[in-house]
Design goal:
14 helices; Enolase-like, domain 1; alpha/beta; 21 strands; 3 domains; five-stranded antiparallel β-sheet; binds 1,4-dihydronicotinamide adenine dinucleotide; FAD/NAD(P)-binding domain
């Protein structure tokens, strides 16, 4: 039997970063991965999607420069080449993770680990004993059980399409649905998004959610909210998706149907009942703020532990678990988690909305600043709006929402402001580079108290 200080099951962002953090602090670590290092994020999630979206945004830019007469013609592009290059970027990153793990002395075991006790695992016929275990097995797509659901593809399939579909129906207007809709729409596919709830992204600031919806519609994406998908039928031309809204039935034709209605915990190999691991009512591994499960020395992080299903949260949870394993007590702080949707244009938010503040009995004021008043945005041809939510009494920053180009980069600056609860007077004395899109965050914060400079 092989013995380790720490055994980690799953080599996605949460698992591999925990392995590196623990090894750098002197622990003897084994990491089990049944597929490819990097997990969903690197292989079939964030990174390949962002590669597609980057090219899609470039195509949009070229189209707009052609419309304005700066480019004489838009030219054409090769979807096949985009897909091939995307795979190269993914491979480069996966090899990078493997290199880091090896250099840090982590034992990487290729194969599916089975937990046979809280701190005992078997993989490829060998038994492993660990002082501590981190479960980082991630998540898998969830499918709604409607007739014909087997005809739908998941995000992994849609990322790997070899041919551009003429028509795509996206079931679920959440993060994956909107990002895929954006990419494929820009590549020229006719896209219809069918979303159960009304409006889109209902947990975000309504002004920002409305603006994003209208900008996506302007790009030509058909969005039908408050619609329930009933069934998918196959016909010689492709598929028909039947959905209902306000008593009416809609029929949408497609050659590709993407189902993106959420992801559930991947617990394969964990033997939940056998080891006595407690799950939440939604089927995720229950953890406390130190990422500890109900079993001593067993931690869970990332998508498998529920909550935010975001790689950067998995990183933070992994580092929290490692700290606690090392005896340095640490609790996870999720009060300033950036939430990005890499649509075209992008969306990013951090902190709370005015509505959430009101529920907690906090009165807020909402400031905003439109991209049209910012020099850099005009120079770059970018459009959108920044919203800043400030506590009325303390004049502290509690939330930021951005719709527009650069949102996912701008949000880091905003995250610091929310984490540090920046006050109005601190915003007033802060000097932000000019020209830059970042100036809009300061202006929107000042606008909360009607002190923005470039706004009446
Ligand atoms: P999601 O929870 O973001 O969105 C699913 C959507 O499907 C919801 O809006 C829901 O109301 C809708 N829905 C559910 N049942 C439906 C039905 N029967 N008909 C129509 N609509 C229905 O889940 P998604 O998009 O699958 O993403 C999974 C996870 O991956 C998310 O938690 C997300 O945070 C994460 N992710 C994050 C990314 C990022 O940070 N940019 C990118 C991609 C995924």
């Amino acid at each position: 039997m092989k013995s380790f200080d720490l055994v980690i099951i799953g080599g996605g962002p949460g698992g591999y970063s925990s392995a590196i953090a623990a090894a750098k602090r002197g622990l003897k670590v084994a990491l089990f991965e049944k597929e490819k290092l990097g997990g969903t994020c690197l292989n079939v999630g964030c990174i390949p999607t962002k590669y597609l979206l980057d090219k899609a945004a470039l195509i949009e830019k070229i189209r707009s420069l052609t419309q304005s007469g700066i480019f004489r013609e838009a030219g054409s592009f090769s979807f096949r080449k985009i897909q091939a290059e995307k795979n190269e970027v993914v491979n480069k990153l996966v090899n990078g993770v493997s290199f880091l793990l090896n250099k840090c002395g982590v034992t990487v075991v290729q194969g599916e680990a089975q937990l046979i006790g809280p701190r005992r695992a078997i993989c490829n016929g060998e038994e492993y004993k660990a002082d501590n275990v981190i479960i980082a097995t991630g998540s898998v797509p969830f499918r709604i059980p409607i007739p014909g659901s087997e005809f739908s593809l998941d995000s992994t399939d849609v990322l790997a399409l070899e041919k551009l579909p003429a028509k795509m129906v996206v079931i679920g207007g959440g993060v994956i649905g909107l990002e895929m809709a954006s990419a494929y729409r820009s590549f020229g596919t006719e896209v219809t998004v069918i979303e159960l709830l009304d409006p889109l992204i209902p947990a975000e600031q309504p002004e920002a959610a409305r603006l994003l919806t209208s900008m996506l519609k302007k790009r030509g994406i058909n969005i039908r909210t408050g619609s329930k998908v009933e069934r998918i039928e196959k016909n010689p031309q492709g598929f028909i998706v039947y959905s209902g809204k306000d008593g009416k039935t809609f029929e949408d034709c497609a050659d590709v149907v993407l189902m993106a209605v959420g992801r559930k915990a991947n617990l394969s190999g964990i033997n939940v009942e056998k080891i006595g691991l407690k799950l939440s009512p939604k089927g995720f591994i229950e953890v406390n703020s130190k990422q500890q499960t109900n079993l001593d020395h067993v931690y869970a992080i990332g998508d498998a532990a529920g909550g935010y299903q975001l790689a950067h949260v998995a990183y933070a949870e992994g580092e929290t678990a490692v700290s606690n394993i090392l005896g340095n007590e640490r609790e996870i702080d999720l009060s300033a988690v950036p939430r990005c949707i890499y649509t075209i244009p992008g969306f990013a938010a951090v902190g709370i909305t005015a509505q959430q503040a009101q529920k907690n009995g906090i009165e807020t004021v909402l400031g905003s600043f439109n991209y049209s008043g910012n020099g850099m945005a005009l120079a770059e041809g970018a459009s959108g709006t920044v919203y800043v939510i400030m506590e009325k009494e303390s004049k502290r920053t509690v939330g930021v929402q951005i719709v527009g180009e650069g949102a996912s980069e701008l949000i880091s600056f905003a995250t610091l402001a929310v984490a540090e609860k920046l006050t109005l007077s601190e915003w007033e004395t802060l000097i932000v580079a000019h020209p830059s899109l970042s100036e809009m965050i300061r202006e929107a914060a000042l606008d909360s108290f009607e002190r923005a400079i470039h706004k009446i």
